[in-house]
Structures are given as structure tokens and as C-alpha cells.
């Protein structure tokens, strides 16, 4: 199980890839993509906590207004309830944030002995597979949209996660394999001709 948090996410305009009007044949250049001006002053922001078992690809998320010890313990409690009771051992890959090793989190681990935390080293963030999944969430929920309040961001994130869980697949590191055409034989693969 890969567990991490993303944030702070704020209610603001997130850049997207708007379509640009192209005028072929009349000599005019393509139009520029335009976006509303955002002054960046947003009073509402928060964090998204996520858990991803890579084998199933299903994701559990929770939003909190701050990244605190109590919000971390609350999310671990949700993860504990989310994991089926038939699973005997849960290994959670986490980063070395000081919140993750606080006394309350350690007491939670003692109270729930089937779970263990495996902390990754500082230079190995890519080993936690939820890190690349945040990019997918950003693409599904935030890209090209403007939010005025944190509640709108929360709704978009929950809707995007519901969409992901409906269309999930095992999450693997790197790019997904695509169907490729077989490669044509090149000069190196031709049979050698013996010179007489």
C-alpha cells in the first residue's frame, strides 16, 4: 500500500491546454490560448491524503484543511477500515515526514498491529507509486479549471477519484504498455552474403 499526501492545493486557476483557433489557408497565424487572470490570493487551501494498493489500482482519498498529526491519524483510521479484514498484513510505503513518526501515529500502529510502515529514503520518492498517481489526479480533477473555494476543489478531487476507481487498472511504475506494431527487419538482421 502506498500512502502519501498532496498539497497544499489551493482554490485558484489551474493551467490547462485550451484548444487554439487555427485558420488554415487564409494566412492568419494561430490564435493564442487565453486564460483568465488569477491574482493568486486565495484564502482556502487544503491537503489531499491518498492510499493506493498498486496491485488493484483502487485509490482511497480524504481531504483535510491542514497536514497535522490528527489528520494523519484520521486518514490511517480510514485506511484501516478500507482494507478488507481478510488481509493479515498491510505494509504501507511512506516518506520520512516528521508527522508520520509522531507519538500519536506510533500509538495508532501499536493499536493496529496488522499494519506496518516502511519509510523510503529521501532520494527515492519514485518508489512510492502514489507519487506518479498524483499527476493523474491533477490531470483528471484540476487541469484547466478555476476554483473559487476549497469545497469546489474537494468535490472535483472526489469526482475524479470516483472516475478513476470505476476505470482502474493495476498501477505500475513507468508508462503503460501500448500495442505496438512489430518492428521491420533492418539491415543488421539480413542474412550475410559470403563473398566468393
Please summarize what this structure is.
27% of the residues lie in helices and 16% in strands. With 196 residues, it is of the alpha+beta class.
Commentary on this structure:
Helix content is 27%, strand content 16%. Helix 2 links the parallel strand 4 (90-94) and strand 5 (115-119). The model has no long low-confidence stretch (mean pLDDT 81). The protein is α+β, with helices and mostly antiparallel strands and 196 residues long. It has a domain at 1-13 and 42-122 and 142-173: Nucleotidyltransferase, domain 5. It has helices at residues 69-82, 103-111, 130-142, 150-166, and strands at residues 2-10, 45-52, 60-64, 90-94, 115-119. Helix 3 (130-142) packs across helix 4 (150-166). The chain starts with a strand and ends in a 30-residue tail after the last helix. It is globular.
What descriptive keywords fit this protein?
single chain, Nucleotidyltransferase, domain 5, three-stranded antiparallel beta sheet, two-stranded parallel ribbon, 27% helix, 16% strand
Gap between N and C termini, in Å? 65 Å
CATH topology of the domain at 1-13 and 42-122 and 142-173: Nucleotidyltransferase, domain 5
How confident is the prediction overall: mean pLDDT? 81
**Helix- and strand-based class?**
alpha+beta
Give the number of helices.
4
The stretches of 5 or more residues where confidence is low (pLDDT under 50) are none
Specify the biggest β-sheet: 3 strands, antiparallel
What series of H and E elements makes up the topology?
EEEHEHEHH
Q: In what range is the share of β-strand residues?
A: 15-25%
- Gross morphology is globular
